[in-house]
Amino acid sequence: MAEVQLHTEEEQKLINAAYQELLNDYLSSNHRRKVDIINKAFKFASMAHQGVRRRSGEPYIMHPIAVARIVSHEIGLGSTSICSALLHDVVEDTDYSVEDIENLFGKKIAQIVDGLTKISGGVFGEKASAQAENFRKLLLTMSEDIRVVLIKMADRLHNMRTLGSMPPAKQYKIAGETQYIYAPLANRLGLYAIKTELEDLSFKYEHPDKYAELTSLLDNTREERDNFFTIFSEPIKKKLENLGYKFEIHARIKSIYSIWRKMQAKNIPFEEVYDILALRIIFDFNEGDDEKQACWAIYSAITDIYKPHPDRIRDWVSTPKANGYEALHVTVMGPNGQWIEVQIRSRRMDDIAEKGFAAHWKYKTGEKDDSELEKWLQTIKELLENPEPNAIDFLDTFKLNLFASEIFVFTPAGDIRTLPQGATALDFAFSLHTDVGLQCIGAKVNHKLVPLSYVLNSGDQVEVLTSKKQVPLPEWINFVVTARAKAKIRSIFKKEYKSFINKGEHDLETYLTGINQKMTPDNLSKIMDYYKETKKEDLLYKIGKSVYNLNDLTNTVFKSQSRWMKYWNLTFRKDGKSTSLPFFGTKKPDTKKTLTLEENNSGVTYRIADCCSPIPGDDILGFMEEDGMLVVHKRQCPVAMKLKSNYGERIISAVWETHKMLSFPATIEIKGVDRLGVMCDVIRTITEEHGMNISRLTVDAKDGIFEGFITIYVHDVEDVNNLCVSLMKIQSINSVNRVEHV
Q1: Residues in a beta bridge with 178
Q2: How many helices (H) and strands (E) does the chain have?
Q3: Which among 647, 594, 645, 601 is positioned nearest to 623, based on CA atoms?
Q4: DSSP state of 163
Q5: Do 164 and 135 belong together in one domain?
Q6: Kind of pairing, strands 339-346 and 406-410?
Q7: Of these residues, 11, 21, 58, 93, which one is catalytic?
Q8: CA 152, CA 88: separation in Å to the nearest integer?
């Protein structure tokens, strides 16, 4: 924060106007009119933060007002949460204590403010394990009062909206932890609108050029989409009006981050993302009407007009998602031969979809309405009862529980159980009861006998077989994916498990020392990715039990290590000028400045990360390891995302200098119609026209179509783009794209 200076008359007007907007939002909601306590909280927070400014220069009180407004308007919470949001930084940033808050505003507001203060450093801060410990505190408080995490979401959203005033390295750290934890957590809590905005803002700061490009492409195609929406929706409107429904039809545009992810995952250009537009129908229903029946009646009306895709019906009305989401989705063939998704929701369902937990409580009517969210909070409580000894490992275990890709399975009595995708028969047994899990000898899935390790599918009916003579085995840890089952099995084999972990750690350190490497976070992340392990402890346990042969790493993970290790001159730039700054040992990097990578052979040891293999022209960042080695990653690399989240203070903003001396490997994918001589034309274009070396070439041809992957050596992204343009000119070639390593 900047030095203290009193607010000007103009600033005071801005503060009062922002507060009035907050009050207007609150008064237009359905909550009780408790304006007096909100006024009291505002005056107290204004006095406490008087004269203090944010990094952007605006009065600090504007931040709590903005957070309170998100809490009220976008999440739909009431006066207690609004007061807590206005006061959320008072204890941390001023001389007032939690006791002062309790004396003035009561126990409940003080409890929430205390919970927010304990986790104020963000999920992660200067020390990874300490910050993961903060996250454990967040979960403990969350399991007591969900409003703590909802206000924290609002705080993070406003910080992301005002991230532009931060230096680049800080932006990458905050954007990284937002994508790693906050966006999935918002999704799990049913805050769909907030989750989408958090993802888009993270993407905007990590890849500003791509964000601007996709925004421009969306703007340029808006008129075409609007025309299609009108043509497509008109017959649906007429049909529903004739049936007597009160409804709204909206166009739902895919978020920029979702579009980019699809382009990356499927290696396709923007023009081939066909589900950018979807239709959302929100209908009103009267008390006592059957919502579910109305959804299916509207579905029937739509499919009378357009033909449905038989495999693309998503019924979240009968079985809501674990975050409370309810809707009926159907994909139909539009008038121009294009598949269009139609989402059908009642007003209540739409409210829950946009505002999540707060709206869910608003509509609760009885015991049977206990949502999957409450069950999920229960699993978090269980996780906290059996915490991982290492805080970051605990965070990774929680992360497994965050992603809401779930399956629905049935008990023999027909009850539904929700489990994460990939869950096994043994996971199901533990979900029923710990004793059932420990005595499980197998299961019958759809009346067929299966082993404990059998992976369940949505819709399976599972009967667990138990025996009192059954004794749990250590290898069961490999059969389960749920945090509950893992925690229970680990607690039984704690001593044995720990000894194998210690042996694995010793074996890994010995191996790494033998190949002149160290057990750095970056190396550990690469090894975990190679073995497809998500937890460090699971990796070390399996190494200790000799499940993995470490010699495999020599020709895979560490194969090209020496080839890409170069000595570089690292240059810090400020105000357009550059000054060389030698960087040795474990000296803490200056994260406020941007690092420029030049092609000299003096300065600091630096290497390209093998996990994502960035080349000049890619958006990158640097990670300073403990020995002073700088590792360069693509900003979207999953390993880099973990590093940003857990070791944010060692992230350095980096840019490429012009590279025309060194060559880097890049892979392109070519698809086309198979004809005699087509590969000769491709090779000639690469080697003769562009003078590039080919290191690897694989081609697969079938039924007159071929697909090839070619790894070439290039100087930068511009080389790749120029080559792709040349290859597209060859007859029979249909598409040429660079293959991302992530």
Answers
A1: none
A2: 29, 22
A3: 647
A4: G
A5: yes
A6: unpaired
A7: 93
A8: 9
pLDDT tens string 38-78 = 999 999 998 888 888 888 788 889 999 999 999 888 888 88
pLDDT of residue 602: 32
- Asked whether residue 506 falls in the same domain as residue 417, the answer is no
Our CA dihedral for 467, 471, 472, 475, rounded to 10 degrees, sits at -110
Residue position matching structure tokens 């900047």: 2
Residue for token digits 């990360």? 609
Q: What is the mean pLDDT of residues 199-207?
A: 91
Q: How far apart are CA 427 and CA 448, in angstroms?
A: 18
Active site residue 427: no
318: pLDDT strictly greater than 70? yes
User: For residues 542 and 503, what is the distance between their CA atoms, to the nearest angstrom?
Assistant: 10
- In a 13 Å sphere around the CA of 310, the CA atoms on its Cβ side amount to 0
The span from the CA of 252 to the CA of 327, in Å, is: 14
Q: If we measure between CA atoms, which residue out of 460, 430, 470, 462 comes closest to residue 443?
A: 462
pTM of the model: 0.69
**For 286-291, which contacts have Cβ atoms below 8 Å and span 24 or more sequence positions?**
291/317, 291/346, 291/348, 291/349
Same domain, 82 and 99: yes
Active site residue 95: no
Q: CATH no. for residue 161?
A: 1.10.3210.10
DSSP string, 310-347: EEEEEETTTS--TT----EEEEEE-TTS-EEEEEEEEH
Q: CA 29, CA 19: separation in Å to the nearest integer?
A: 16
Q: Which domain holds residue 587?
A: 565-656
Co-location of 47 and 187 in the same domain: yes
Q: What is the mean pLDDT of the segment spanning 516-540? A: 80
Strand, coil or helix: 121: coil
Q: CB–CB of 511/553 below 8 Å?
A: yes
**pLDDT single digits (tens) 438-490:** 999 999 998 899 999 999 988 889 999 999 888 888 888 888 988 778 878 87
Percent helix, percent strand, percent coil in the chain, to nearest 5:
50, 20, 30
Q: What's the distance, CA 225 to chain centroid?
A: 28
Binned at pLDDT 50, 70 and 90, residue 379 comes out as low
User: Which residue in 56, 2, 124, 122 sits closest to 650, CA to CA?
Assistant: 124
34 and 164, same domain (yes or no): yes
Instruction: Tell me how crowded residue 612 is: count the other CB atoms within 10 A of its CB.
Output: 20
Q: Of these residues, 92, 234, 248, 435, which one is catalytic?
A: 92
**Residue 559 belongs to a domain:** no
Using an 8 Å Cβ cutoff, are 678 and 706 in contact? yes
Calpha distance 696→712 (Å, rounded): 7
- Picking from 73, 69, 29, 359, the residue whose alpha carbon sits closest to that of residue 190 is 359
What are 496-508's pLDDT values in tens digits? 778 888 889 888 8
